[in-house]
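Dear support,

I submitted the protein below through the web form. The confirmation email said the job was done, but the results page showed an empty box. After a refresh the structure appeared. I'm attaching both so you can tell me whether what I see now is the final result or a partial one.
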Amino acid sequence: MTDPEPKRVLFYVQHLLGIGHLTRASRIANALAVRGFDVTVVTGGKPVSGFPGPAVRHIALPPVVSSDEGFSALQDMDGNPVDDAFRDMRRDRLLAILHETRPHAILTEAFPFGRRQMRFELLLFLDAARAMPEPPKIFASVRDILQKRPKPERDRETVDYIDRYFDRILIHGDPTFARLEETFPHADEIADKVVYTGLVAPPQPEPPADRFEVVVSAGGGAVGRHVLHAVVGATAIIRPEKPWALITGPNLAQADHDAIAAGVVGNVKVFRFRPDFASLLSVARLSVSQAGYNTVCDILRARCRAIVVPFTTGGETEQAARAERLERLGLVSTLGDADLSAERMAAAIRAGLDASAFPEGDLSIDLEGADRTADILRDML
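What the results page shows now:
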């Protein structure tokens, strides 16, 4: 008896500013591959070394990025506005990938709750998938806390897309921590399709070769520059003797990275990227970061005491909502994004280093979302 053919999964991931969406999707894709799925990840953003990982097939569409932190427009890697010819070229390539892959399952990262900018290719892609002789199951892969929308009609549009295209909505969160209805007003209308997977945290890390007392990070580095500069100012006040690591992120402008490297005071090493970031947190006394989904997952897995500065530029609400929940549980301390200063950062770091360790006992938040997502797809296919 021959082994059954592996189920083919096509995972569409479009990151526009940071690397958080790509990181979470990569963790899920690799968990699927470990479980025996044949996984193709299609990315449409700026290339990031090491992602989506060696266990999956990776196809990169011609990349687009956001023109600003408010996601107001798309541009190519040279800074040119995306025109109709570029859109047509990407859409045709995506449709070709669909027919080449013939997936049993499709995952769309964020869409239809986000990535409205990509409807020019996604709607035709999903129409084509539904029209295939053996149509794939279609899943939305969505973080636990959504950005609140100023226009109610966009939430109604999301429900319409779910009704038309999607078999399941995979909420990568723990319902005891955050529920969909808290940030999406029409959750009751799609409740029969919603499945909570748990947070998509990394596996328990191995001990790192290096040890740092404080680990400062800015995710991909596209935003968070002000956090890094506040920490630079704080080093001049604290003048750390024990080693600190400051990780600026691959997307931070080179001039900013150089200024940070030149400005730190004391025993501080500055890095662009550390692939062992999660491991560094496991032995650090304190983490300083924004409150993005993946960094928080790393913090919780490592059980590291943390200071978070939620990203709130352009009316962003998601990180602030996450930080508020974590602070209420006693898992982080929060600094405001708007009035950040070197003095306030130094005081928070000193307080964090003086505080007790991460709360003892069992962490009640489910962190096994990558494996559970693989189980859900296996059961449905």
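Response: this is the final, complete result; the empty box was a page-load delay. The mean pLDDT is 92.
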